[in-house]
Amino acid sequence: MKQKTRARIKLMNARMWFDAFTVLVAIVFYAVAWPTLHVTHAVPMAVQPFIAALAAFPILLIRINPALGWAISAGSALIIALAIPNQPGNDIPIQVVHTLVLFALLFGVALQAAVPIIAVAWAATSLLLATTMAGGGDLANSVWGWPIALAAVVLLALMLRWLVQSRQQLMRKEEENELERAKRTILEEKARIARDLHDVVAHHMSLVVVQAQTAPYRVEGVTPAARAEFESIGATAREALNEIRGMLGVLRSDGELPEHAPQPKAADVLGLFEGARRAGVRIDWTIDGPLDAVPDTTGLTLYRIVQESLSNASRHAPGAPIQVAIICGIDVHLSLSNGPGAVSAKQGDHGGHGIAGMRARALAAGGEVTTGARPDGGFEVRARLPLVLPLDPNIVLGDTVADR
User: Fold this and answer.
1) What count of other Cβ atoms lies within 10 Å of the Cβ of residue 380?
2) Integer Cα distance of 303 and 288 in angstroms
3) How far apart are CA 94 and CA 51, in angstroms?
4) pTM of the model
5) In 1-144, where does DSSP find H-type helix?
6) How far is CA 264 from CA 115, 121, 260, 342, in A?
7) What is the pLDDT of residues 179-199, one digit of tens each?
8) Class for domain 265-404, per CATH?
9) How far is the C-alpha of 254 from the C-alpha of 188, rounded, in Å?
């Protein structure tokens, strides 16, 4: 970005210097054309400043609009050659200054304009000079000289133009390569972070699973209820490990296949309910309509909203009963509410982003989420998700699980 800024400043400075030089050249040309006009043409004194201006000042357009400047210069040269008589002994109907300006503007046209415009400008200028500047009135003496000279000017400008364009393309290619290298570095760093996170988190989660599965055999006097609790802990840890692998898989950019299970669907919310019940949560649910008919993306959004809501209810209202209702009709409607917990959450505990994440997910799927406290001290989450996704969802469905 800094290099682009410096390049733009240099370009602005170059243009300013070029414009200043052009103004200086125009003033010099005007200072030469006006005093010498009466020597070459029979022009009244009052008209001489205007004729000199037509000869010198069109060069001011050489950078802004060279085609317009060339048209003004060529048109005024033709009018002067046909309408203003020469002084005795002068065979050149167009001033030398006017001819130089015409050459310069044709050079500018060849630098900027399209090829058809360049061809028209070259042909018209060649015809103008060949017919009006022929020595002694003999067209054959100069009919080929002016087109050849003008063609050399045009070819020189085109070569310079192509050289500049090739250098610009090379610079753009280098910038693109630099951006690609930067992106590749970022992706490699993300992959390294993903591997490190996977190694650390997966290791400890795997230990939790192993400890939960082997605890009934290592600890004496484990009751059937405790055994079931250990099995629930192991199942929850395995599920968390699979989801962590799935989330870290999006950071992998080294061509390795991410180790994760398929993304959850709408029907997988039943596993969330059953897992919560196994963990001791008092939960009841009703489902009206086929969950299998919910599209995968909408189903993933529903799953994550239910998962976040259950997590929040268990954390902020432990021991409270939870009621869940899901209706699959034209849209998917979710209602999840919990009563007051045995231990209330702190009043200032609102620093997380769980609700914001749920709303972002619902918005990306074309739906909405509303939340609020219930009169009895509980909390309620309502969500509406359309079965048909919006045409251009621009919000990424990120995995956001945090405190509300």
Assistant:
1) 16
2) 16
3) 11
4) 0.44
5) 2-40, 48-56, 66-83, 96-112, 115-132
6) 60, 68, 11, 32
7) 888 888 787 777 767 666 666
8) alpha beta
9) 7
